[in-house]
Write a structure and sequence with these properties.
By secondary structure, the protein is α+β, with helices and mostly antiparallel strands. It has 2 helices and 6 strands; from the N terminus they run αββαββββ.
Length: 129
């Protein structure tokens, strides 16, 4: 699955898909020079990029491959709850709604100690490719 990230912003930030479960997709991202803001904290935009990457991939995997569709993010929000300065963050995307035209995903991002650092929700439109 990580090959789907080749040549993307997700690859540039070091995002790795680590686990696919029956109702979730999980991935990690390093907290390093690529993903922090000037004060050394995980950049909120990096967290949102991780969230949208996981939700978009998970949404795509839920679609019928023969239908030639993809899940394209149309809205995302995030609440940054804890500063992270080092290590890996782990994001887990889980569906809230999987409809014919839209999907809604919750993405929880935790620090290396398993503490919630960011919670995000993304809405995707199901569109043809």
């Amino acid at each position: 699955m990580t090959q789907l990230l080749a040549g993307t912003a997700g690859e540039s930030l070091g995002i790795t898909i680590t686990e696919l479960g029956p109702d979730y997709l999980r991935g990690t991202m390093p907290v390093d020079a690529r993903t922090v803001q000037p004060f050394g904290l995980l950049h909120g935009g990096s967290s949102v990029l991780l969230a949208e990457t996981l939700a978009s991939l998970a949404g795509y995997l839920c679609l019928d491959p023969g239908a030639k569709q993809q899940a394209a993010g149309i809205e995302i929000n995030a609440n940054h709850l804890r500063a992270v300065t080092e290590g890996l963050v782990t994001g887990t995307a889980r569906p809230i709604h999987l409809g014919r035209a839209t999907q809604v995903w919750e993405i929880r991002i935790e620090d290396a100690k398993g503490r919630l650092a960011c919670i995000s929700r993304m809405t995707a439109a199901v569109v043809g490719r």
